[in-house]
Amino acid sequence: MEISEILSPQAVFHRLKGANKKKLIAELAACAGTVAGLDEGKVFESLWQREKLGSTGVGHGVAIPHARIAKLEKIIGIFAQLESGIEFEAIDEAPVDLLFVLLTPEDAGADHLKALARVSRLLRNAAVCEKLRAANDKAQLYALLTEPLSGVQAA
Asked: Which CATH superfamily is domain 3-148 in?
């Protein structure tokens, strides 16, 4: 699975301001509503319920909030580069400034895990994250995120 299959250029956000974790997730849910026509309240509730089970902050300034959404027809990704890091209760306690939201259909099964693994593999790469943090606009972010996997070596 390639990132370009789940992420559209319209679903990439550059230098987003996040006041705190809950407000940021609400803002990303609103983005999902805009780019995918989803009910932002339902998206927020699904993401927030998952977050309450345990932080999706995976370390090194990265979080991968994810949830299964009823009546969603395909996997949708939303990426946000934050203006500055925010407290996210990440595993390493570092502030988060790169987020990849993954929304999957309720019955996605293995596809949900494949998408999560693909995003995780990409964002575990320190060189990729460094480039994402240095990106100056949405187009540059999208290009970095959708480079073929063969060009991205896992760290």
From this structure: Mannitol-specific EII; Chain A (3.40.930.10)
Question: What b/e sequence results for 127-154 when a residue is b if at least 16 CB atoms lie within 10 Å of its CB, and e otherwise?
Answer: ebbebbeebeebebbbebbbeeeeebee
Domain ranges of the chain: 3-148
Half-sphere exposure for 3 (CA within 13 Å, toward CB): 25
Model pTM above 0.85: yes
Is the distance from CB of 95 to CB of 124 less than 8 angstroms?
no
The pLDDT assigned to 155 comes to 38
Catalytic residues: 66
Tokens found for residue 94:
């570092």
Instruction: Give CA–CA dist 115/22, Å, rounded.
Output: 24
Residue type for position 57: G
Q: Which residues of the chain have pLDDT under 50?
A: 150-155
In this prediction, residue 11 carries a pLDDT of 97
Check: CB of residue 51 under 8 Å from CB of residue 25: yes
